[in-house]
Specification:
The protein is α/β, with parallel strands linked by helices. The chain has helices spanning about 35-45, 65-75, 85-95, 100-115, 125-155, 160-190, 195-205, 210-225, 230-235, 260-275, 280-290, 295-315, and strands spanning about 1-10, 10-20, 25-30, 55-60, 80-85, 240-245, 250-255. The strands form two sheets. A five-stranded mixed beta sheet has the order 3-2-1-4-5. Keywords: Coiled coil.
């Protein structure tokens, strides 16, 4: 197996091919981050008698910029792994690497692939990618709407002219219509795909999981492969991080908050409802309060329990059962 580390930027890919594992020697190539660049990279590998089917490619998750390269190399037959940047940073630190350049980063990624054998990444379906894009667009429109409402409040407080206030009102009317339209498109997209529709119904069978939380979770769980509920909770930043060492360090455990913050905010509101109306979540919340945990700590555990239930209904493809192992 050959290992190729790729440092991804918006415009280019810095690639390091590990050609001698014992002597830690590499070959380097820089290509555009575009279909033309992907083709050049494959030609470069072929010229060195490297079969893409015997290639393990490692790159970091970099927003949206790594996605097209990952899909192209996966479709060409390569094993692609998307590494957590924090894990790679710790790995580089352990190797004693302090220099940070695109070339050095790509070498670290190739070495990371060799020594840790990260799991294979599988691209999400086209339907899942469309849903992700629609949800991102809805979030952007919601932010635009809130900004205009803030401007409206300031305009009214500052006694702005009627022309300015009317312009803001017109803008709010337009954005509100756009928000309604994108929501309709999201609902239609899910309804037209049997898998997405079925999974949304399973998620919404859980008390406290409504349309907003179900669609967001649907996009996350269809875009990534989670082998356990714990992995999903960790991705969403809902696992407690403890800071204890000897007698000098005894910090309070806090949520890692390493995942998408907007989804955690939605799950927070869902957990508020769940501790009243969901038997499983209510039991966890009450048990922790009885042990002396703070309300925020117990609420974090309630969010985590809610995520575990969501993973469970999709894993088993069965609707939520209130009387199943109630705890």
């Amino acid at each position: 197996m050959h290992y190729l580390g790729i440092d991804v930027a918006k415009a280019k890919l810095d690639c390091s091919l590990l050609v001698n594992q014992e002597q830690d020697k590499y070959k380097f190539k820089v290509v555009e981050n575009s279909p033309v660049g992907f083709a050049k990279l494959l030609d470069w590998l072929t010229a060195r008698d490297i079969s893409v089917t015997e290639l393990h490619i490692v790159m970091e998750a970099t927003g949206i910029y790594h996605e097209q390269a990952a899909i192209a190399l996966h479709d060409a037959g390569g094993i692609v792994s998307i590494a957590n940047p924090a894990h790679v940073k710790g790995f580089a630190y352990g190797l004693g690497v302090r220099t940070k350049t695109d070339g050095v980063d790509s070498r670290v990624l190739a070495r990371y692939g060799l020594l840790t054998k990260p799991s294979r990444w599988l691209p999400p379906s086209a339907e899942s990618r469309i849903l992700k894009g629609l949800l991102a667009r809805r979030e952007a429109i919601k932010q635009d709407l809130q900004r205009e409402k803030n401007r409206q409040e300031k305009a009214e407080a500052g006694k702005e002219s009627a022309l300015i206030r009317q312009s803001i009102t017109d803008s709010i009317t337009f954005i509100t219509a756009q928000l309604k339209k994108i929501q309709s498109q999201i609902d239609d997209h899910i309804d037209q795909d049997p898998t997405l529709k079925n999974d949304r119904e399973l998620l919404e069978s859980i008390p406290a999981i409504g349309s907003q939380s179900s669609t967001q979770l649907l996009a996350i769980m269809h875009a990534h492969t989670f082998n356990s509920a714990e992995q999903l909770a960790a991705y969403l930043g809902l696992v407690p991080i403890e800071r204890q060492s000897g007698s000098s360090l005894n910090g309070r455990a806090k949520l890692s908050k390493s995942g998408p913050s907007h989804l955690r905010a939605i799950l927070y509101m869902a957990a508020i409802v769940a501790i009243q109306h969901n038997a499983h979540v209510k039991a966890v919340y009450g048990r922790l309060l009885a042990k002396g945990k703070t309300k925020m700590s117990a609420l974090g555990a309630a969010m985590r329990k809610l995520v575990h239930l969501c993973f469970g209904v999709l894993k088993t493809q069965q609707k939520y059962q209130p009387d199943y192992q109630n705890a």
